[in-house]
Amino acid sequence: MTHTLFIKELAKELGFDHCGIAKAEQLDDDARRLENWLNKGMHGNMQYMENHFDKRIDPRKLVDGAQSVITLLFNYFPSERQRDDAPRISKYAYGNDYHEVIRARLKTMLLRMQERIGPVQGRGFVDSAPVLERAWAKRSGLGWLGKNGNLIHKQAGSFFFIATLITDIPLEYDGPVADFCGSCTRCLDACPTEAIVAPGVVDGSKCISYFTIELKEQLIPDKMKGQFDDWMFGCDTCQDVCPWNRFAKANKEAEFTPVPAILNFSTRDWEEMTEEAFKTIFRHSPLKRSKFAGIRRNINFLKY
After folding, report:
1. Domain boundaries in the chain?
2. Residue 216: pLDDT above 80?
3. Can you say which residues are annotated as belonging to the binding site for tRNA?
4. Which residues make up the binding site for cob(II)alamin (predicted)?
5. Global pTM value
6. List 17, 29, 97, 127, catalytic entry
């Protein structure tokens, strides 16, 4: 209990908004759901989703002797929005690349645990390894999986990055919470491409985020024209319409302060941007994941 309290206080100190802990064990139910999702081809060209299946469902295969999975939420909801006459960007990409920001916090967290507790072994992950982050967040009581597939926290909504720290020490474990989506279907009704094919099931191969971020060096299929609702990089529609996000509050993390260009660029500014300018302005931004060519492709797709 002492170690658990220390870890949760440490999480707050390092800027994480919420922390939950679950026992490290195989995720049998999630394994079946993931296998079914893959077999239906809902991952599109994201072949990496097929890799390391055994590690995705069992954290003990990622960290020897793993006993606990610590899940951390980091708020990214911005205090400002883009101008109306610009192609839209998902809110998670307004500031600096979250991988770099959160990975550094996880390293610090593990070091502090080792200093306080002793020879703790562990590994931190943030959307960069075969870890079912949302499943662990649900197990550790940080929320439920909404009908849009996102983790929803009852007091704070869903605009969070999810990080995971798998460690070999036993801790006090949190239990799951109830599902409060009820009969609401706003996310299913609002999805521009009808990618939410059933409550909690998102066909990734139909999602705007897939086409604008994951689909590399390829043309977006013509059949998708007119369906993107001006989304150039990612999509927040299913979160924007979610009633639980009325509780979302602006983050206070300096690293996630919006890049001025994201707030101020008009459509014309985006169209006239050079590759050199892109590399300079967005050198620390998640937008660099799509590269200049991908951003140009997305902008041109919205035009015609």
Report:
1. 1-304
2. yes
3. 216
4. 56, 127, 148, 151, 162, 209, 235-236
5. 0.94
6. 127
